[in-house]
Amino acid sequence: MSNVLPKASPPDQAQRKRALDASRSILVEAPAGSGKTDLLTRRFLRLLAEVEEPDQIVAITFTRAAAAEMRHRIVTELEKAAAQGLTTNPSGSQSDGFSMEAPAHRALEHSQALGWNLIELSSRLRILTIDAFCRELALAQPLLAGLGGGLEIAGQPAELYRRAVRRTFDHMDSAAPELQGAIGALLLWRDNNWQEMEELLVQMLAQRDRWMHGFVLEREQDWEVLRERLEQPFARTVRANMAELSALLDQAPHARAEALELSRFACAQSAGALYRELAELAEFPAGRFESTELLEEAREACVCLAGLLLTNDGGFRKQVNISHGFPKERKAEKKRLLQLIADLEAVSGLQAALAATRSLPPARYSDDDWRIVRACFMLLRHAAAELKVVFAESAAVDYIEVAQIAQHTLQEEDGFPGDAAIAIADGIRHILVDEFQDTSRRQHELLRRFIAAW
Which residue of 216, 300, 324, 420 is 20 to 30 Å from 376, comparing CA positions? Predict the structure, then answer.
């Protein structure tokens, strides 16, 4: 009599089985080591038993090693099924169809019936890195690539970036006034350091999938509209912090007026060096802050409040002195400040919210900062255009360019998938993505466009 106890099913057995249902689109969220890749492998085997061709299933990973490992797992399971024989009927815990053996047997039977010969021809399994998948898509439309049918990947793309940057600078004398002005403004900003400017631009071209959006490339810009659009994330962050801090200060109704008076005192004692942005206000900022100007005014005031009440480490002050704007002979004001700190220390969460104001971005660009941002957009647009010329001359590209060509293949100028995209999508029935949280915005957009073509 065997003493081996049957292996207990995992507590999420029902969810794991549901993830193998080919009629469902599935998102699996689970911690490291919980078997997500194993589950994806099982699903791949299950799908192999249903498709007309093995290349109708595409599995995307993010490293070559991960792709090789997944291919090895699938082939190993098919080999096990072949060794056991197609007539083997998995029993016991295997009969629920969740074990690896059951889908492997069905996949092998289907493979042999259709003559796929997957064990010997495992290259028919489309298990690719995201870069290889992009290259497949781009090569499907060589005319869109603009670089012939090869799309060779440059071994040292940084050399191509640098060539594009230097060409951009070389054209300065004959460039349009707007480009000359942009280069001049940026050089002035960086103390006329050409070498540093070159290095920064090379780095930006190497990461252009993060910033190369339509509004950067547009030649005719409504700069004020663009400025408002780019300031929105800053404003939202500041607004959320101001709302939280305001709700906390409401729990100490006298605190705003007292803080304003004490900041004025300290500002006067320091000849205007301390807490000026708060001290010069008629009243402590509160409300909805309808404009970014008012919101930025509130942020600056709250940064001053943090400086008045908190140490550099973010804790409430235990003592104050002349360096904080309170001379030792002004004992009454010092006592008032320490009492205010004690009152606010009793408000749960206020210390952390107040300390967080110090790391907030400004709610809007200063005019000087915006001039630099505009100049950056101008220079980046020209450098990106030069890079395309360099790619064409070199007959080599980088992975970012391949991904951008792939995206253009999947979506036409009107935002809808064209005939080419639909033809590509029709050849794929299932797409599986491993470690999706590792995708960049570029990779997410690629998958979105592919699914739209479905």
Answer: 300
What angle, rounded to 10 degrees, do the helices at 177-189 and 367-394 form? 110
Distance CA 409, CA 419 (A): 10
Rounded distance, CA 202 to CA 158, Å? 7
Half-sphere CA count of 218, side-chain side, radius 13 A: 9
The amino acid that residue 174 corresponds to is: S
φ, ψ of residue 430 to 5 degrees: the values are -140, 140
Strands 396-397 and 57-61: unpaired
Taken in order 446, 449, 453, 454, the sign of the CA dihedral is positive
| Positions of E strands within 194-321 | none
Instruction: Render pLDDT for 368-407 as a digit per residue (tens, 0 to 9).
Output: 999 999 999 889 999 999 999 999 899 899 999 988 888 8
Is there a contact between 315 and 351 (Cβ–Cβ < 8 Å)? yes
CA dihedral 143, 148, 152, 153 (to 10 degrees): -40
Helix axes 194-206, 177-189, angle to 10 degrees: 110
Beta strand 430-433 with 126-129 is unpaired
